[in-house]
């Protein structure tokens, strides 16, 4: 059987730019990065040459350029196995919320928190990402973090949980956790990519609680 010819990936706009020799490395730079620009080439010389050009000379001439790997199904690829995946569950009957994180490669559960009274799913997703960031920061690890919540990812990027939930005596503990999470985000620098788990392509988030 003939071996699959290797590809080389040019990233003109991403977390880091340059020529990468694997799709996994390219994805780390582009997945979830707004305005990412990249393309695969059949040889390294061609990729190196293209990197020196403007991206629009190689990406969809006369068409709208690729803006994000996550918006092009053929370019989604596979999730990075050396990563941490998080998810939250919210009980619609009781209002209780909990969240957890697993290491994708082995499906080992790294943390499980809750249930917390009178929460929301978005709050749980936000706290799960920040918890993962703090845990990986302690371990000195820059591996990616996956979440299937675009809202929570945007909150983390803004370092602010933009929840409309009102604080009550029942959920005071939850709001204390939100304050601590926001403080952590504003006082720490991290290099972990926070990526969207592509459920429609990869299937259910492995950290899902399975209560749908």
TrEMBL record:
Signal peptide: none
Protein function: Endonuclease that specifically degrades the RNA of RNA-DNA hybrids.
Protein localization: Cytoplasm
GO molecular function: metal ion binding; nucleic acid binding; RNA-DNA hybrid ribonuclease activity
The record's free-text note on cofactor binding: Binds 2 metal ions per subunit. Manganese or magnesium.
Annotated protein name in UniProt: Ribonuclease H
Chemical reaction(s) catalysed: Endonucleolytic cleavage to 5'-phosphomonoester
Organism of derivation: Spirosoma agri
Residues where Mg(2+) 2 binds: 125, 148
């Amino acid at each position: 059987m003939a071996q699959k010819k290797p590809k080389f990936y040019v990233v003109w706009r991403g977390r880091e730019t340059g020529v990468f020799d694997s799709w996994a490395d390219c994805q780390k730079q582009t997945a979830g990065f707004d305005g990412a620009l990249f393309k695969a080439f059949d040889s390294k010389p061609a990729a190196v040459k293209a990197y020196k050009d403007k991206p629009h000379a190689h990406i969809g001439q006369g068409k709208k350029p690729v803006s994000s790997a996550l918006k092009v199904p053929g370019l989604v690829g596979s999730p990075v196995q050396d990563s941490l995946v998080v998810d939250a569950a919210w009980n619609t009957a009781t209002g209780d919320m909990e969240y957890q994180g697993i290491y994708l490669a082995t499906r080992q559960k790294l943390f499980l928190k809750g249930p917390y009274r009178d929460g929301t799913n978005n709050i749980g997703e936000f706290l799960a990402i920040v918890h993962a960031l703090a845990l990986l920061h302690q371990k000195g690890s820059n591996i990616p973090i996956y979440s299937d919540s675009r809202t929570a990812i945007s909150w983390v990027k803004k370092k602010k949980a933009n929840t409309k939930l009102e604080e009550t005596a029942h959920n005071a503990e939850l709001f204390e956790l939100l304050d601590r999470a926001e403080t952590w985000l504003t006082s720490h620098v991290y290099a972990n990519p926070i990526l969207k788990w592509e459920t429609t392509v990869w299937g259910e988030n492995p950290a899902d609680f399975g209560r749908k």
